[in-house]
Design goal:
Helices cover 80% and strands 0% of the residues.
């Protein structure tokens, strides 16, 4: 997911996306623990997507505060 895509989303959409990504990360970690994960790099990609979403949520919060 690109940061430009996230900038176009509202705070509610970003919150939903964050929940989806956290659930996906949980499932990936579970699959990794039982050795059924095909692409272990996907964990890192999802972590970075979570960070991007959190950054955008924080930017929206700061803009609303001003």
């Amino acid at each position: 997911m690109k940061a430009s895509e996230l900038r176009d989303m509202s705070a509610v959409e970003l919150t939903k996306k964050l929940a989806e990504l956290k659930e996906e990360l949980f499932n990936l970690r579970f699959q990794h623990a039982i050795n059924q994960l095909e692409n272990p790099n996907r964990i890192n990609v999802v972590k970075k997507d979570i960070a991007r979403v959190k950054t955008q949520i924080r930017a929206i919060e700061l803009n609303d505060a001003q």
